[in-house]
Records
---
Amino acid sequence: MRGENWKLDLLLAINEALEYADDRESFIENMEQEGYQVLWTDTRNHITFITPEGRRCRDSSLHDETFHKQNLEMLFLYRQAFGFSPATEEPEEGWLGELAEDAVRFGRYLEQAFDTPDLPPIPTWSESKQRSREALKKLAHGQKLTNEESYGYDFGW
C-alpha cells in the first residue's frame, strides 16, 4: 500500500525458495537463483536479504515471524529429521506443528517423571517476629528506631 512491493516480492521469493529447500545451504542457493543475496552467519542474530535492486531487509522487518532466523533453523532441523522431500505440500499444522506437539509431550513427560511432592507451606510470622523484622529493615536502611520500636525486641545481638 505504501509502494513497498519489493518486500512482497521478497516474501514470495522466500516462500518459493523454501518449497525446495531442506537446509540452509539449499535455501541460500535457491534465493541466489532468483537474484537475491542472503547474509546468514552463525555470529549474527538476523538474516539479511539483499534484493536484486540492492535493497536490504532483515528477517525481523518482514512482518512475519515465520522467516526469523531461529524459526528457519528449526524448520530445517525438522525437515532433516523427518525426511522432507522438495515441493511437498505443507502439513495442515505447519512444518513446526508436529515438532511443537512433540516438545509439549516431552515437557509433560518431564513434569510427570520428576513430580515433586507438595512444597511445605510458607512460614507465617508472629506479630512480634514481624515487628522485629521491620525494625531490622529500618536499621539496615540507616533509619533510627524509636524507643518503642527498640524496647523489648531481641535482635540477637
Note: The two ends are 74 Å apart (CA to CA).
---
Amino acid sequence: MTVHLIKLSVGVENVRHLEQIQAHRLADAKRRGVAPELMHVTRNTPRRAAEILKQGSIYWVIKRFIRARQVIADIRQVEGREGRPACALVLEPGLIRTEIRSFRPFQGWRYLAAEDVPADAPPGMADGAEVPAELAAELKGLGLL
C-alpha cells in the first residue's frame, strides 16, 4: 500500500514561489558542481519508507491549504547539521497541483494515507491558476472548499 507524506512549506507564498525556490536550488547545485537533486532534509527517517517509495508523494501545505504534491524518488541517510544523522527525501523535479484542501498547522512531516489525499487539480487548474490564500480561507468558511 502506498503512503504519502504531508509537510508545511513555511515562508512560501504560493506554488509558483515554491517552484522558483526549487529551480534556484537546482541551479545552485549545478553551479557548485554537485548532482542537481531536490532534497528535503529532516531529522527523522520515516519508518514506513518502503511504503512511501511505492509511488508516494510529499503534499505541500502552503498558507494553510494543501496545494501541490511532489513525487518522492528516494529516501536516504545523510549527514545533517553538526554531523548528526539525518534523512533526505529526494524529490522528483516538478510540482503537481492538487485540488485545494485546508489543513491545520503542525510541525515536521506527517503520514498521509492514500485514501486521504486530495485529487490532482483538473487540467484547467493545473496551468498555474491559483486561488489566493485569503479567498481560499473565505471559501472554506462558506463550505465551498
Note: The beta strands are 3-8, 38-42, 57-62, 65-79, 85-91, 96-102, 109-113.
